[in-house]
Amino acid sequence: MKILVVNPNTTVSMTHKIAKAARAVARPDTEIVTTNPSKGPASIQGFLDAATCVPGLLEEVARHPDADAIVIACFDDTGLDAVRMSVSVPVLGIGEAGYHAASMIANKFSVITTLSRSVPGLENNLMRYGLAQKCVAVRATDIPVLKLEEGDPATMLKIRSEIRETIEQDKAEAIVLGCAGMADLMAELSEEFGLPVIDGVAAGVTFAEALVNNKLSTSKIGAYSSA
Amino acid sequence: MKILVVNPNTTVSMTHKIAKAARAVARPDTEIVTTNPSKGPASIQGFLDAATCVPGLLEEVARHPDADAIVIACFDDTGLDAVRMSVSVPVLGIGEAGYHAASMIANKFSVITTLSRSVPGLENNLMRYGLAQKCVAVRATDIPVLKLEEGDPATMLKIRSEIRETIEQDKAEAIVLGCAGMADLMAELSEEFGLPVIDGVAAGVTFAEALVNNKLSTSKIGAYSSA
Amino acid sequence: MKILVVNPNTTVSMTHKIAKAARAVARPDTEIVTTNPSKGPASIQGFLDAATCVPGLLEEVARHPDADAIVIACFDDTGLDAVRMSVSVPVLGIGEAGYHAASMIANKFSVITTLSRSVPGLENNLMRYGLAQKCVAVRATDIPVLKLEEGDPATMLKIRSEIRETIEQDKAEAIVLGCAGMADLMAELSEEFGLPVIDGVAAGVTFAEALVNNKLSTSKIGAYSSA
Amino acid sequence: MKILVVNPNTTVSMTHKIAKAARAVARPDTEIVTTNPSKGPASIQGFLDAATCVPGLLEEVARHPDADAIVIACFDDTGLDAVRMSVSVPVLGIGEAGYHAASMIANKFSVITTLSRSVPGLENNLMRYGLAQKCVAVRATDIPVLKLEEGDPATMLKIRSEIRETIEQDKAEAIVLGCAGMADLMAELSEEFGLPVIDGVAAGVTFAEALVNNKLSTSKIGAYSSA
Amino acid sequence: MKILVVNPNTTVSMTHKIAKAARAVARPDTEIVTTNPSKGPASIQGFLDAATCVPGLLEEVARHPDADAIVIACFDDTGLDAVRMSVSVPVLGIGEAGYHAASMIANKFSVITTLSRSVPGLENNLMRYGLAQKCVAVRATDIPVLKLEEGDPATMLKIRSEIRETIEQDKAEAIVLGCAGMADLMAELSEEFGLPVIDGVAAGVTFAEALVNNKLSTSKIGAYSSA
Amino acid sequence: MKILVVNPNTTVSMTHKIAKAARAVARPDTEIVTTNPSKGPASIQGFLDAATCVPGLLEEVARHPDADAIVIACFDDTGLDAVRMSVSVPVLGIGEAGYHAASMIANKFSVITTLSRSVPGLENNLMRYGLAQKCVAVRATDIPVLKLEEGDPATMLKIRSEIRETIEQDKAEAIVLGCAGMADLMAELSEEFGLPVIDGVAAGVTFAEALVNNKLSTSKIGAYSSA
């Protein structure tokens, strides 16, 4: 099967990192196609970026009509409803996929994301998906998305500090890493803190495989009907 | 990988049907092991059966310590928390898996189950998982679980009638079949009604594969800590 | 004061109708400026239209930096968060304004909108605003937005029938007309059914006046911070 | 139009302060009539005061049958439902008005009120209005209502300290001042803390103007039917 | 122990009926004292009556300072918070008591009350107590409270019809009779419909006995603190 | 009447303590019968113990068919639904009884329990009963159940410290002691902290008496139907 993984921002280095995370978990017979728009915001930080990247995202989706499933590789799940309306294959956001995965292996989870400005959008999504009640905290590190690309040691210190605090104070039992740019940290942090650390890209790709294998596609009755 | 699929009731013909549904979606390199307790209720219909089958379920789980993931093939997700506490691999109930799958491909879904007596237990589960808000109705056909095994045409008429009504009256966009014994009806009903029809056994097996591939296991901090 | 009322679709006749509704309630010293994008969907019906009209909406907003308040004249409140992030003056969606007005004069209200496909988006908004619990039903007439422009008698029959049913069956105490294209029906239907009938355009303009008069502007801490 | 603003306690100096706040935002052609009962509690602090002031409040309302709208100038919104039942014009509580205003300009808000004893009543109101989910905290300064009248510098220090904490700890994006006696502090605190600070009296008066201008009145079907 | 049962309306025949219901369940060593205000509404039907009867209710409570517990015998639980603030003994509303009793013996219950106008107040109470989620319907018979006193056969037909419908349509498992004036119907209807039928007066008196026997009194920290 | 109080664990000394607490509040004419299974977990700490003790609990219930009511004396309310399905008399869990009692005498309450591992089960129960919204915190002392039997002074220090913190930080107005093994501490702690401290065993016994006196039994329609 072919899974299209769209990074909705224009930062190619993030698309590469996403591709690597996607391929690390995909089945041998799954083809991972990654792409990003050529125009639009360089990172998705808050409601304005989330809205303005959607036309580019829809264009990339339209360019790949043979995809068997689509993963939107932005933790805000930006454009998720619009993409679902424009195709009939399964569509997953990586935030959504991460929350579902966390709900299957822990009673309560936390999200560690980038800027404070992004927190309300994630909280809205959690409420819409019904999974807000499984999430004890959405915490911001206040590290900009693109800073994650630079590999600054201070960045990792801040992420570690938030994980430690959310385990102790919020009683989190699992962590969802709230940015596609954190995809490479999953194994290391899980080992270090002794609890599941979830990357939405990996979760999204494997759940997409699962849905395709179930021969399930996006419902075309009601909310996502195209006619 | 090896996935243990436990039918928590003692009806071997259901275990066979579950095995067939599980193998139909599993990857070629996934080994599906199915089992059921030798003692306990012949079907799980309501809170009393759900409680009394748990010791047998736990015994079957203990007999397969090499499983990479466990699927509890009863739509009540009976014993889910107890099994999670007793192992560290991922554990999925087929009700839980069906609700998550439905939430990924439709805005709202309905559940069609067997007896009215089973409805409150399913509603409680949906509330706990947070997914009650995605579920517009849990409808009972009032067909006993074991009656499903007999292939009576009246049974299918009743299931069809409930699906038709929940699409029209409740605005369901997808259907979750609320009993392991309905696993073989999925494709046929989906075709007929033009919307996704989800079988929890298939969803559970593929999500278990996904979680294992993500190297995720049940959190051992908090609710499911064993020490 | 100057209030910018943006119709986010490209149908000029709807913009005229909106302008009329806005001016009918505005204070004498309030200047109402109406506009619509030149490119984008002709009507907003569902998630895809709601996403694709946003760039045009943002452009119109950017063209009027001297507005003291902004009203987004689409009942889906499309782009509301993105617009709030891009300006500091108060921004109101007409769906949002209608729900708040209804909550102030009735214990429970209903929404009568156009297509079934638009219902989930409105329900999501109501949930986000917290006002879902005041709303007993969002009912679709299944009349396309642009059909409302044509003045077909069958259209009015359908709207009346839904209002009658929601009063009797859902115990609605007030009605919010769920489309900017229904703005001219408010007085007539209110008289006929003996209960408040609310037009979001009128509510939005007068609440915008109220916020400006309170010297209140969109918070720039947190969700809508621009930096 | 004529707006009746009733202070439901018997403290005339508070009525004067309320009148000043009301007139500061009212349109030139709006007549503000303020009054208070001659008998009843001197301040409304908790459930007992809130209940015992209602007969006096209803008497004041009955004395002004020509009012076009009524504002109940107590942050507990005491007697709101009863007054709505006894008249047909719009009726707003200043707590209610403040919460709606805050919801229109911020994603999340906090309330700063007087005594801890008053907090549960405000929380109940927020739950009933549906706006509890927009409110991150109701904080008490533990300054009695009438102490606010005295202009003690310690009072202002305590209010400032609570505002600072709720911005930092609760991530409040706007503040609703939870007592009619704080009406004069709005502009100063907003400037100082760089976020919207809302006075319910001002919000109530301008929303009342808006509702009257929309020709909306209290629904007489259902909860507020008088017959 | 002495339990004061206050009928907050002025209809003495209802007080007598309440007294009979209270004494029928009270322990031999429990003294039941019943009373009603001499001034105020003759029945409590909606928010206005509920507010205006409170001063009379508080006077009756103040006249019996030696009561070990207080039961407010109006299904609206009118004045409950105010009475709790004015005494330290346990205080129960009969609506509240009925809902708690129903929650202990059934998964879901319905309320059958008098006028439609009273429904919103009951729904608000259920929401505040947290028990709304256990209640599948609050149904009005549209029989005025005082009409119940007359023993009209049509009255009983209407009550029976609503019970039948709520069992079939709402899946109610128990019925709470939503008016002190229905107290004498409990046994007969329970027998007839084969499910628990709960009278709030009886529930209130026995729960009051239970709380006194537990040596529990109303908390004087927080919401009900009197100082 | 005869009330069967079942300790679902096998620790006889806890059964004795429970019997003492039950008899201290029961009426003179109530016969308290206490028992515990001979096989199963020695204490109920988390989901696994809660599941494995149920068969023994059901056996003890079946051995006493003449009981007029049943109290399950484990704060997890383990097996509550199953027992309700197997009998027709009223059945109360001591957690459930404690939460209902607290809701009747305080606006908000806290629970102080034993291990952190038990907290999620209690939170799930509170959500199911609807009473989560009345509960501001479930706090663990991290003292194992059986440790409570030993009378270690450090145990009491820890319980006191949690009570103090929950009053100050969570604004608890009443405390529910979250373990049958704490039953003897109720009076002492209530006196010391000046707020109601509730023992579920005592609450359960007196509410059972109340339900029996109301001639109420478990509904046999719907969730708890036995056929």
Automatic annotation (TrEMBL), chains A, B, C, D, E, F:
E.C. number(s) listed in UniProt: 5.1.99.5
Protein name in the entry: Hydantoin racemase
Pfam families documented for this protein: Asp_Glu_race (PF01177)
Annotated InterPro entries: Asp/Glu/hydantoin_racemase (IPR015942), Hydantoin_racemase-like (IPR052186), Iso_Racemase_Enz_sf (IPR053714)
Highest rank taxon of the organism: Bacteria
Catalysis: reaction(s): D-5-isobutylhydantoin = L-5-isobutylhydantoin; a D-5-monosubstituted hydantoin = a L-5-monosubstituted hydantoin; D-5-benzylhydantoin = L-5-benzylhydantoin
PANTHER family named among the record's database cross-references: PROTEIN DCG1
Stated family: Belongs to the HyuE racemase family.
MF annotations from Gene Ontology: amino-acid racemase activity; hydantoin racemase activity
